Amino acid sequence: MRFIGSGAFGSVYEALVADHGKVAVKLVNISHSHTSKARLESFKREVDVLSRVKHANVVKLHGACMVPPNVFIVMELLEGSLRDKLDACRRLDYRATLKLANEIASALAYLHPSIVHRDLKPQNILMDASGAAKVADFGVAKFKQSTYLNTTRGNGTPAYMAPESFGSDKISEKADVFSLGMILWECWTGEVPWKEVQIPFQVVMLVGVEKRRPEIPEDCPKQLASLIQRCWDDDPHRRPSCAEVERRTRLLLHELDAPPAPPAASAANASNAAEESQQTIA
């Protein structure tokens, strides 16, 4: 196995499996501490989610072992995360931002009838060799029993979290829509949201109490700026669904890829053409 990276949860390795070729193996550090028990529950939740879904823009699960001390998940091997990509190129152009939005929205629209991710951020968006985005890391995701789901505070990453996630015991899939808006803003600007804020609680005050949002630069295309602002709406009911975001970005991509329309003939050209036609007939 080849070591890829590590974090608080454990380590990730590249391995070769007969039936699947190269895969990513996520090993978890498990002990008898309370933190390790919570980590194990998070991994069980992730396996539960991934075992039920199949979508081109959701990371693929190959297998898992949840019996300590051998706790690991085997997933498709991907090139890196959106975080890695932004660190390397700083920001995305308009077309790349729309493409990313379309792919993430497509995955979320598929998930949202039954699952809310709750921790959408660049680190949890993985990229394959072709540059396609895949939603990953479902450790704090929850299955919906109704329109809203009961949740606990403290789940997610404050810089990308919706205001209702800070102060409500019930949230909907529209919390993921807010997070998507923050990701799109970061892709266009190349800036991490609220990077000037040192304490997470300050983000809670800025977003949840003062209703503030990051400033959208003047060079942001109007259609993208409008989409981001709608995703950021303080009222979850006024935010678009991810199905709507997918349709909108698909249409905008189609407009970019469509060949330019031929210039319309001016009235003078049309008149000259008519006169030449009359002279020819005469």
- The average pLDDT value, as a whole number, equals 85
Main sheet?
5 strands, antiparallel
The H-and-E topology, N to C, reads as EEEHEEEHHEEEEEHEHHHHH
CATH class of the largest domain: Mainly Alpha
How many individual domains? 2
- The proportion of strand residues reads 15-25%
**Secondary structure tally: strands:** 12
Protein name: Protein kinase domain-containing protein
Family: Belongs to the protein kinase superfamily.
InterPro entries: Kinase-like_dom_sf, Prot_kinase_dom, Protein_kinase_ATP_BS, Ser-Thr/Tyr_kinase_cat_dom, Ser/Thr_kinase_AS, Ser/Thr_Kinases-Pseudokinases
Keywords: ATP-binding, Kinase, Magnesium, Metal-binding, Nucleotide-binding, Serine/threonine-protein kinase, Transferase
Layout of secondary structure:
Elements: E1 2-6, E2 10-17, E3 21-28, H1 34-50, E4 61-67, E5 70-76, E6 80-81, H2 82-89, H3 94-111, E7 115-116, E8 125-127, E9 133-135, E10 142-143, E11 149-150, H4 163-167, E12 170-171, H5 174-189, H6 200-209, H7 222-231, H8 242-257, H9 267-281
Antiparallel strand pairs: 1-2, 2-3, 3-5, 4-5, 6-8, 7-10, 8-9, 11-12
Helix pairs in contact: 3-5, 3-8, 5-7
Characterize the structure shown.
- The structure is a single chain.
- The chain has helices at residues 34-50, 82-89, 94-111, 163-167, 174-189, 200-209, 222-231, 242-257, 267-281; strands spanning 2-6, 10-17, 21-28, 61-67, 70-76, 80-81, 115-116, 125-127, 133-135, 142-143, 149-150, 170-171.
- With 282 residues, the protein is an alpha+beta fold.
- It has 2 domains: 2-76, Phosphorylase Kinase, domain 1; 80-257, Transferase(Phosphotransferase), domain 1.
- It has a 5-stranded antiparallel β-sheet with strand order 1-2-3-5-4, with helices on one face.
- α3 packs antiparallel against α5 (174-189) and α3 (94-111) packs antiparallel against α8 (242-257).
- The longest helix is centred in the middle third of the chain and has 18 residues, at 94-111.
- The model is unreliable at 146-154 (pLDDT under 50).
- Residues 257-282 are annotated as: Disordered.
- Keywords: ATP-binding, Kinase, Magnesium, Metal-binding, Nucleotide-binding, Serine/threonine-protein kinase, Transferase.
- The active site is at 119 (proton acceptor).
- Pfam families: PK_Tyr_Ser-Thr (PF07714).
- Residues 1-251 form the Protein kinase domain.
